[in-house]
Design goal:
This protein is of the alpha+beta class. It is 44% helix and 19% strand. The chain has two domains: 22-146, Phosphorylase Kinase, domain 1, CATH 3.30.200; 157-257, Transferase(Phosphotransferase) domain 1 (Transferase(Phosphotransferase), domain 1, Orthogonal Bundle). The chain has a five-stranded antiparallel sheet with strand order 1-2-3-5-4, sandwiched between helices. A hairpin with a 2-residue loop joins strand 8 and strand 9. The protein binds adenosine-5'-diphosphate.
């Protein structure tokens, strides 16, 4: 009996190992195409990234890795997948943005533009005091930025994964103020803002995933702005008495009044 048990344990371990291998493979699959590998090697050889430590997130458009840079400074490395499926909807957030006039038609070119767009958006937001990860480098489909999380490599939680907010009204007003600053000072609309794209770390809210953010002159900017406000108010209304939650339209109009 004991023997059979041990055998089963052994088999389980082997199965787990093989499952992990498959997962690892799936995580890298479609991301590290030959172009990306060449680029990664260049970034690695320059010493910007010393070591890839692990994967933080595997998504449809990109994977995010935890890596160590010079002097072991923690980094988040976002690598966009060169996947033609993604370029169709991405185009809607690129075409009409005065910053990107020539985008090309190939999947590579569009994804590279998308990655550069996230880098530019992060830079523009940072310059106007919006709390986002500091962008460090973008090269083709690879974006290197500040890692938000514990020193041991545990990434910050998303707002969605927080059970309790210390001061929800204050937190809500802070995000509404960030949306307003983004529009009025950085001249950008996030376009996908919600509790999924806000990290919560050491009592601070950090906005992430800004690749789709558009210029306020983009034809859909007002629609995206209202959607962002709505998502944020929806989330905070779970923690706040409705009489303290402002109306979407009121917030929207207040921002536009200040243009
Ligand atoms: P996607 O578009 O694939 O969702 P995100 O930019 O939202 O890409 O990143 C996916 C996940 O990776 C986030 O939900 C977050 O958990 C983690 N992440 C992204 N950027 C950072 C960062 N700078 N520091 C720590 N974790 C990050």
């Amino acid at each position: 009996d004991n023997k059979i048990n041990r055998l089963e344990v052994k088999q389980d371990k082997r199965r787990m190992k093989s499952k992990r291998k498959t997962e690892e493979h799936a995580a890298f699959n479609g991301v590290f195409d030959s172009f990306t590998l060449v680029n990664l090697n260049k970034i690695l050889s320059k010493g910007i990234i010393n070591e890839f430590v692990g994967i933080i997130s595997a998504g449809k458009e990109a994977n995010v890795y935890y890596a160590l840079g010079e002097e072991d400074v923690p980094l988040a490395v976002k690598i966009y997948k060169i996947d033609p499926q993604n370029t169709k909807w991405m185009k809607n957030y690129i075409i009409g943005d005065p910053r990107f006039k020539k985008i090309g038609t190939s999947t590579h070119k569009i994804i590279y533009t998308w990655c550069k767009k996230e880098f530019k958006n992060l830079t523009q937001m940072k310059r106007h005091d919006i709390l986002v990860p500091t962008p460090l480098l973008s090269r083709d489909n690879i974006l290197v930025m500040e890692f938000i999380g514990e020193e041991n490599g545990t990434p910050a939680k998303r707002l969605k994964d927080i059970d309790e907010l210390v001061n929800p009204i204050e937190e809500m007003n802070y995000i509404l103020d960030q949306i307003s600053k983004m529009y009025l000072n950085a001249h950008l609309v996030h376009g996908d803002l919600s509790e999924f794209n806000i990290l919560y770390f050491k009592g601070k809210q950090i906005i992430i995933d800004v690749s789709q953010a558009v210029s306020i002159y983009h034809i859909n900017a007002p629609v995206y702005l209202q959607r962002d406000i709505k998502n944020v108010l929806n989330y905070f209304s779970k923690f706040i008495d409705s009489k303290h939650v402002p109306d979407v339209k009121a917030v929207f109009e207040k921002i536009l009044k200040n243009v």
